[in-house]
Design a protein that fits this description.
Pathway: Membrane lipid metabolism; glycerophospholipid metabolism. Catalyzes the reduction of the glycolytic intermediate dihydroxyacetone phosphate (DHAP) to sn-glycerol 3-phosphate (G3P), the key precursor for phospholipid synthesis. Its EC number is 1.1.1.94. It comes from Actinomadura litoris. β3, α4 and β4 form a beta-alpha-beta unit. By secondary structure, this protein is of the alpha/beta class. α8 crosses α14. 50% of the residues lie in helices and 9% in strands.
Length: 329
C-alpha cells in the first residue's frame, strides 16, 4: 500500500520471493505506468518491474484476500490514510510497517499507530527495517533487513515471504528497537548531510554517526528495547547506509541545507519524503518525555524549526561539556 520508491521495491521483492502481489497507488498515472510499461518512472526510472506485479488505485482490490499488508505511505499521513482501509483488511492478515518515523503530536511509533487505528493485537503488526536503499535493491544488489514482530511465527512468515536470492532477511521480536533505529537514524543522516554541505570530512561524519548511534541506544533503553538490536542491521546498518550514500534522501536533504539552501527551498526540490525532517520534533518530544539526552536531535530540530544557523549548531555540539563516552539515561 504505497507506490513510492520503497513500496514499489518491496512489491518486486515479494514477487521475487514467490508471492502474488498487488501494489496500491494513489496516482492513476503511476499505476498505469506500472501496469503498461512495467516501470515506476516517477520514483524508480529505468528500473524494470515484473509483469506479474500489478497496480491499482482501488484499495479494496489491493487488499482482497491477502496474507500481508505492507504499509509504505509517509509516516505523518499514516493515521489518516489507514483509517478508511480498516474495514477492507482481511481477518488475520499481518500488517507490516515499512515506514521510519514517529508521529507528530502523539509521539507514537508507526506500529503503535497501526495497532490503534486498525484495532488489532500486537501479534498482527510487524515492522521491516534495515539498510534498504530502494534503487540498489530494485537493481538486485545484495541487501538485507530485519523482520520484527512480537509473534515469532509471524516474523518467520514475513521472513519467508521476502527472502530472495539477492535479499536476506533476519527475524527479531524487538519491535521497539527495530522501529527506533529506523526513525532516529534519519535525523542523524540529516546532521551528517549538513556537515558534508559545510565541507567537513570523514572524521566529522564518523563522529556524528557514532554519537548518533549512542542517542538511538539511549532512547531505546528508556523505551525497553534490546540494546543488541542497535548493533545490527536495523541499527548500525541502516544508520551507515543513510549517512554515507548519496541515494539517501535525508543525507541529501541535510547536505543541501549545509550548502546554504533554506528549508523551504530544499523541500521544494525534494521529490520524495525525507522522514527525518518531519519526525525530528516528535523524536525530541519523545526523548524529553523519558528524560533522554539527545543533543544531535536537538541541534537538527533547532536548525529546521527554530532558526539556528547550521554553523552555530555545529559549535554547540562540539563545545558540549566533557563526558565519559558511555553514559546512561
Amino acid at each position: 500500500m504505497g507506490s513510492g520508491s520503497w513500496g514499489t521495491t518491496f512489491a518486486k521483492m515479494l514477487h521475487d520471493a514467490g508471492g502474488e502481489v498487488t501494489l496500491w497507488g494513489r496516482r492513476a498515472e503511476v499505476v498505469e505506468a506500472i501496469n503498461e510499461r512495467h516501470e515506476n518512472p516517477d520514483y524508480l526510472p529505468g528500473a524494470a518491474l515484473p509483469e506479474a506485479v500489478r497496480a491499482t488505485t482501488d484499495p479494496a482490490e489491493a487488499l482482497a484476500g491477502v496474507d500481508f499488508v505492507a504499509l509504505a505511505v509517509p509516516a505523518q499521513t499514516l493515521r489518516a490514510t489507514l483509517a478508511p482501509w480498516v474495514p477492507l483488511l482481511p481477518p488475520g492478515a499481518i500488517l507490516v510497517s515499512l515506514m521510519k518515523g514517529v508521529e507528530l503530536g502523539t509521539t507514537r511509533r508507526m506500529s503503535e499507530v497501526i495497532r490503534e487505528v486498525a484495532d488489532v493485537p500486537q501479534e498482527r503488526v510487524a515492522v521491516f527495517s534495515g539498510p534498504n536503499l530502494a534503487r540498489e535493491i530494485v537493481s538486485g544488489e545484495p541487501s538485507a533487513a530485519v523482520a520484527a514482530c512480537e509473534d515469532e511465527d509471524a516474523a518467520r512468515g514475513l521472513q519467508a515471504a521476502t527472502m530472495t536470492p539477492y535479499f536476506r532477511v533476519y527475524t527479531s521480536t524487538d519491535v521497539i528497537g527495530v522501529e527506533l533505529g529506523g526513525a532516529v537514524k534519519n535525523i542523524v543522516a540529516l546532521c551528517v548531510g549538513m556537515s558534508v554541505g559545510l565541507g567537513f570530512g570523514a572524521n566529522t561524519q564518523a563522529l556524528l554517526m557514532t554519537r548518533g548511534l549512542a542517542e538511538i541506544a539511549r532512547l531505546g533503553a528508556a523505551l525497553g528495547a534490546d540494546e543488541h538490536t542497535f548493533a545490527g542491521l536495523a541499527g548500525m546498518g541502516d544508520l551507515v547506509a543513510s549517512c554515507v550514500s548519496p541515494l539517501a534522501r535525508n543525507r541529501t536533504f541535510g547536505e543541501n541545507l549545509g550548502r546554504g539552501m533554506t528549508l523551504d527551498q530544499v523541500t521544494a526540490v525534494t521529490k520524495q519524503t525525507a522522514e527525518g525532517v518531519r519526525s525530528s520534533e516528535a523524536v525530541l518530544e519523545l526523548a524529553r518525555k523519558h528524560n533522554v539526552e539527545m543533543p544531535i536531535t536537538e541541534a537538527v530540530t533547532a536548525v529546521l524549526y527554530h532558526g539556528m544557523p547550521i554553523r552555530e549548531a555545529a559549535i554547540s555540539l562540539i563545545s558540549r561539556a566533557p563526558k565519559p563516552e558511555r553514559y546512561g539515561v
